[in-house]
Structures are given as structure tokens and as C-alpha cells.
Design a protein that fits this description.
about 0% strand, elongated
Length: about 160
């Protein structure tokens, strides 16, 4: 490849990476908003957050497809290792700049994964608390079972009494 096409490809690929990083940053903010809505049990805010999150995810999907299309045109596989090898084959300073941009993208993706897992755990805890409260209100309190319905460890009180003896 001559210098101009390499420069154009680097610019285009870099712009797609930066756009992906920006969308992931936006998703991080939306995940924080979602956590607030979950903690305060604000249904309207949760609906709005989910709508915005869906729009952001659609944008992220478009970005990934565009990036993959560009890589495919360049006959580069679309997996992480192939992309890193491709970036490293580019001349300096494009290779260094794209490698830094790719690292930022991966860091943003990892942060989104962590935030999403945090929200999932918050939602599961909230559901457990709601289920327990509902069971109490309906008179179905499960106080002394070895295993719950899913086969997980239940609230077996006998073992505690044996330990006290």
C-alpha cells in the first residue's frame, strides 16, 4: 500500500475505534443511571434508561459492523488478535496511535462489563428481597429448608442450633 491509502485507512479505522469508545463511555453513564433507578425503584427512570441504553447499544452494533466491514475489505480477520497484528503492521505513528486507541476501547469495554455485572447483582438482590417480602406477606415464609427451589443452599436453622449446643 502507498502512504495515502494507509493514512486514509488509519484515519478511518481510528475514527471508528474512537466512536466505539465514545459509545461505551455513554453506556457507562447509562449504566450508572440504571443503577440509581434500580436502587430507588424508580420505574419511570428505569424505562427511560433502558430505552436510552437500547439506542446506545444499537449505535454500538452499527459501529462494530462498520469496523468489521472495513477490516474485511482489508482482508483482516475481525478477531482481537488479528486486529492487534494489523495495527502493529501499520507504519509509525499510526500504529502507536491506533494501538493506544484500541487499548482505550478495550478498557472501556471491560468497564462496561463490570458495571453491567454490578447492576445485575443489584437487580438479583432486589428480586430476592422482594420475593422474601412477598412470601412473608402471603404467609409462605420459608424459614427452615436445607435447599431452596433452585437447589441452592437454603436457610437451615438446625445446623445453627447444633453448633450452639
Amino acid at each position: 500500500m502507498t502512504d495515502q491509502p494507509v493514512k486514509d485507512i488509519s484515519i478511518q479505522f481510528g475514527a471508528l475505534i474512537d466512536q466505539g469508545t465514545a459509545l461505551l463511555s455513554q453506556l457507562q453513564i447509562l449504566l450508572d443511571t440504571e443503577l440509581t433507578a434500580l436502587e430507588t425503584r424508580d420505574l419511570e427512570q428505569l424505562k427511560q434508561s433502558n430505552q436510552q441504553k437500547q439506542e446506545c447499544l444499537l449505535g454500538l452494533d452499527r459501529n462494530i459492523r462498520e469496523r468489521n466491514d472495513l477490516l474485511t475489505k482489508l482482508q483482516v480477520e475481525t478477531n482481537r488478535d488479528a486486529v492487534i497484528v494489523f495495527i502493529r503492521t501499520l507504519p509509525a505513528p499510526a500504529s502507536e496511535l491506533l494501538e493506544q486507541a484500541w487499548q482505550r476501547l478495550e478498557q472501556s469495554l471491560e468497564q462496561v462489563r463490570v458495571l453491567n455485572q454490578r447492576n445485575e447483582q443489584t437487580l438479583v438482590r432486589s428480586k430476592q428481597n422482594t420475593d422474601q417480602l412477598l412470601a412473608l406477606l402471603q404467609g409462605h415464609a420459608q424459614g427452615n429448608s436445607i435447599y431452596d427451589q433452585k437447589g441452592d443452599k437454603g436457610r437451615y436453622e438446625g445446623q445453627r442450633r447444633l453448633g450452639k449446643a
